[in-house]
Amino acid sequence: MAERANAEGEKDLRDEEGFEDLEETATKETTSATDEEGEASEEVEELQGQLEEKERTINELRKRVQHLQADFENYKKRQKKEMEQAKHNAKGDIILDIVPVYDNLDRAFKSFEKNDDTESFIEGIEKIYAQFTEILAKRDVEPIEAEGEKFDPNKHQALMKVEAEDQGHNTITEEFERGYTFKGNVLKPSKVKVNLNPDGKGK
Question: Does residue 28 belong to any structural domain of this protein?
Answer without folding.
Answer: no
